[in-house]
Amino acid sequence: MNNKEIVAKAIFDVVKDDLSLEVITQLLENPKSVDHGDVAFPAFSLAKVYRKAPQQIAADLAEKIASEDFEKIEVVGPYLNFFMNKKMVSQAVIGQIAKEKGHYGDSTIGEKGNVPIDMSSPNIAKPISMGHLRSTVIGNSIAFILEKIGYAPVRINHLGDWGTQFGKLIVAYKKWGSEESVRNAPINELLRLYVQFHEEAETQPELEDEARAWFKKLEEGDEEATKLWQWFRTESLKEFDKIYSMLEVSFDSYNGEAFYNDKMDEIVTLLEEKHLLKENDGAEIVDLSAYDLNPALIKKSDGATLYITRDLAAALYRKRTFNFAKSLYVVGNEQSNHFKQLKAVLKELGFDWSADMHHIPFGLITQGGKKLSTRKGKIVLLEEVLNEAVELANKQIMEKNPDLPNREEVARQVGIGSVIFHDLKNDRLNNFDFVLEEVVRFEGETGPYVQYTHARAMSILRKADFVIDETKEYALDDKDSWEVIKLLQKFPEVVIQAAEKYEPSVIAKHAIQVAQAFNKYYAHVKILTDDEQKESRLALVYAMATIIKEDLRLLGLHAPNEM
Q1: Burial per residue of 356-372, b for 16 or more beta-carbon CB atoms within 10 angstroms, e otherwise
Q2: Per-residue pLDDT tens digits for 463-489
Q3: Which of 84, 113, 128 is the last residue of a domain?
Q4: In the predicted model, what is the mean pLDDT of residues 395-408?
Q5: Domain encompassing residue 38
Q6: pLDDT of amino acid 337
Q7: Which phi and psi angles does 413 have, rounded to 5°?
Q8: 373 in a structural domain
Q9: Does the pLDDT at position 373 exceed 60?
Q10: Region 292-317: what's the mean pLDDT?
Q11: Domain holding 9: CATH number?
Q12: Helix boundaries (H) for 248-375
């Protein structure tokens, strides 16, 4: 039980005829200062029932509550301030972590329900840029978090491997490209051609018509168009896999847009059967005015399909294949209207499970406050950023600990981890500016700072030659350890909160708080002093290291034992 549950139960035992346990729990507050205890209960809500001043009610309750769970209960005006029994709580928390280790905070809430997570989803024939980082690492972390509470995540890389951009690419390749250039540097050359197409199209708008015609050929299975498309796709995936292996992100499915080409007719037929399709200037639409949304364009006037047609087919396929408990789309904030339309069309088709589909939006990564754009060629390559981060980490490790074993591997874990952590510590809806030098710092609220705290704890445990004993009772009652204990106790609650909000930053912020509290503890307390509390202090170090490692794992990071 957490502290609020313990306090709520103690109050409920005294006022059970007048307030429910649920209401009491909701009324409890966290005092602003540690001097005012760990949990506070305002007595105002009982004033009408007891017809007494809240101050008097608080004083009366304090006399009636007798429990060894509390060191003391103080009455301050209308508030009851509860000071938890530090020895009991620390013993319970450290004991549970000693037994459960990395499984502390696991639960079965998800009942093994499948959760497809549509994430990363780069476009074929374009490099993976910094812009793709967010969807990839947010989706990956959400998958770990949901797995911890009992769901079965299915990571889906819904590749952008279809659409008019392939018409553009084929036109550009045939006009300005060569097989040799593409084979030598596939992604860079395809990007160059894509950018050149847009530059030329500004003065030659007829190029857009040519591109549409080639995409139509591709949709109709034209041999030349299909061959070029498959070649672009294969070369792109080789490049993508290099970056995914750097990030240590893997996928259960690479079914992209093209996979749904033969599944869209069924959607169109279902819409026709329900009389939902309407003609508008030769195009076919679904009217969504009842949802206060623009019409969903299902087919263009030339018969070409759109994103939404494929996404409808994908949603139906995922429901049939995975019978999902929920289905998540980790896609930028600017697509929120698209997902509202997608859910509305599915609802119109009578698919009530569309309520279990959730768009998980996120803000932009900017540089100098400006958005990164592929079309104009202003692109920051993710691979380059990750390599630079590793170099920066290596340089700092060389300065601090030149004899570190596995230095290159640790630098990789710290450098790449720092980029992931920086992304995930930000609330996902916020935009943030990316400055690499700030990201790979060993001080401040960074990934390396949290990783270094873990390494420091492991160093203390090695020095003391300490091994946790699950059968022993470890307990502490000092003020310095208490702040760490409370954060460790809170971890299971933090995991559930992160899962409910689909918000990895909740985990990242917890990791920072634990690291800060522990470093403060380390600065104030001589952990290795030989006295009767030494083993309990070392058990706390062990418990802290276990939880910080699990925090980092849930974000997709390593926790090096030495740095």
Answers
A1: bbebbbbbbbeeeeeeb
A2: 999 999 999 999 999 999 999 999 999
A3: 84
A4: 94
A5: 3-84
A6: 97
A7: -65, -40
A8: no
A9: no
A10: 90
A11: 3.30.1360.70
A12: 264-273, 307-322, 336-348
Burial zone of 252 (CB within 10 Å; 0-12 exposed, 13-18 middle, 19+ buried): middle
Size (the chain), residues: 563
In DSSP terms, which residues pair with 74 in a beta bridge? 81
Q: Could you say which DSSP state residue 36 is in?
A: G
pLDDT tens per residue across span 31-59: 989 899 999 999 998 998 899 999 999 99
- If you search the block for the tokens 């100098």, which residue do you land on? 368
- Pairwise CA distance, residues 418 & 557, whole Å: 9
Four-residue CA torsion sign, 398, 404, 405, 410: negative
Strand order in the sheet with 357-360: 152-156, 114-118, 327-330, 357-360
**Position 69 in a domain:** yes
Q: Could you tell me if residue 501 is inside a domain?
A: yes
Cα 487-141-338 angle, rounded to 5 deg: 125
CATH code of the domain containing 517? 1.10.730.10
Distance CA(327)–CA(437), nearest Å, equals 37
For residues 541 and 481, give the distance between their C-alpha atoms in angstroms, rounded to a whole number.
10
What is the residue whose two structure tokens read 């690291």?
515
Q: Among candidates 83, 118, 412, which has minimal Cα distance to 246?
A: 412
Residue 474 near residue 540, CB atoms below 8 Å? yes
Number of structural domains in the chain: 2
Say yes or no to pLDDT of 203 above 90.
yes
User: What is the Cα–Cα distance from 174 to 169, expressed in whole angstroms?
Assistant: 8
- Mean pLDDT score of the chain: 94
Which residue bears the tokens 């059967």?
Answer: 273
Dihedral pair phi/psi, residue 367, rounded to 5°: -130, 120
How many alpha carbons lie under 13 Å from residue 457 in its C-beta half-sphere?
Answer: 30
List phi, psi (to 5°) of 277: -80, 135
pTM for the full predicted model: 0.93
CA angle 305–307–312, rounded 5-degree value: 90
Burial (Cβ within 10 Å: 0-12, 13-18, ≥19) of residue 114: middle
Q: Is residue 130 part of a domain?
A: no
Record the tokens describing residue 169, joined without a space.
């690419």
- Bridge-based pairing state of the strands 79-84 and 152-156: unpaired
**Residue 381 confidence (pLDDT):** 85
221 Rama class: left (phi>0) / alpha (psi -120 to 50) / beta: left
Q: Compute the distance between CA of residue 58 and CA of residue 459 in angstroms, rounded to an integer.
A: 48
Among the three residues 84, 104, 128, which one is the final residue of a domain in this structure? 84
Q: How many CB atoms lie within 10 A of CB 297?
A: 18
- 473-531: per-residue pLDDT in tens? 999 999 999 999 999 999 999 999 999 999 999 999 999 999 999 999 999 999 999 99
Residue 42 structure tokens: 């305002």
- Residue pair 102/337 in contact by the 8 Å Cβ criterion: no
